[in-house]
């Protein structure tokens, strides 16, 4: 009986294990922490929207018929410029629009054709990269916003300790640190996601730009071929 009572006392003295709840940490973080987390959620939603919107747009832009240039070559060499223009208009891709711009300049000096294609290419690249820079901004800003929440949480925790008459309450201090670190973790997560998304879009955009340059050079070589 004595052993049973001692065991029961030991169980009662064991500290209760505290579980972490992201929701509770956010809700207990005060208005400042909740505002920071809300901003991070908005940034995450914007980053994901831009990524998927640009991903599918770039994916569509990279689709070019493997026989496209062969058909352009056949039309141009046989003098069917109207058919070549119609083919470019129906294909609807950055590459076809560049070639179409070049076809519309046939008859002018080759340098003028090259300049027209380069200018059209700059516009196409601008369209491909639209809003992608926002991802880079979010990737850099989100961690800083998270750190701002951490600083606010630390200031609030220290302020509460100061108001308690110098008595350091470990529980109050640990709760404040949990809350402060939550915004940092949130900011880093959003920043990492935006950074990966940005670099992935940049790589895919570069592939489309390379494709456009290769087809443009092939078209200019076609115009340079002896009749």
TrEMBL record:
Domain MotA/TolQ/ExbB proton channel stretches: 92-213
Subcellular location: Cell membrane; Membrane
Keyword Membrane appears in the UniProt entry: yes
A cellular-component GO term for this protein: plasma membrane
Alphabetical list of Pfam families matching this protein: MotA_ExbB (PF01618)
Keywords: Cell membrane, Membrane, Protein transport, Transmembrane, Transmembrane helix, Transport
Membrane topology: Multi-pass membrane protein
InterPro entries xref list: ExbB/TolQ_transport, MotA_ExbB_proton_chnl
Family: Belongs to the exbB/tolQ family.
UniProt xrefs under PANTHER family: PROTEIN TOLQ, TOLQ-RELATED
Protein name: Outer membrane transport energization protein ExbB
């Amino acid at each position: 009986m004595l052993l049973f009572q001692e065991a029961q006392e030991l169980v009662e003295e064991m500290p209760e294990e505290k579980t972490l709840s992201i929701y509770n940490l956010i809700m207990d973080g005060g208005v400042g922490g909740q505002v920071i987390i809300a901003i991070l959620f908005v940034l995450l939603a914007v980053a994901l929207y831009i990524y998927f919107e640009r991903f599918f747009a770039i994916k569509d832009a990279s689709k070019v018929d493997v026989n496209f240039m062969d058909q352009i070559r056949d039309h141009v060499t046989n003098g069917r410029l109207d058919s070549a223009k119609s083919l470019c208009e129906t294909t609807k891709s950055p590459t076809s629009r560049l070639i179409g711009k070049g076809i519309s300049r046939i008859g002018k000096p080759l340098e003028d054709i090259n300049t027209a294609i380069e200018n059209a290419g700059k516009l196409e690249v601008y369209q491909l990269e639209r809003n992608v820079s926002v991802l880079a901004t979010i990737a850099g800003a989100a961690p800083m916003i998270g750190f701002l929440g951490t600083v606010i949480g630390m200031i609030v925790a220290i302020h509460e300790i100061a108001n308690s008459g110098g008595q350091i309450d470990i529980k109050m201090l640990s709760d404040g640190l949990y809350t402060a670190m939550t915004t940092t973790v949130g900011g880093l997560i959003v920043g990492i996601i935006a950074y990966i998304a940005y670099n992935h879009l940049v790589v895919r955009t570069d592939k489309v730009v390379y494709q456009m340059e290769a087809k443009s050079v092939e078209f200019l070589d076609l115009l340079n071929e002896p009749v």
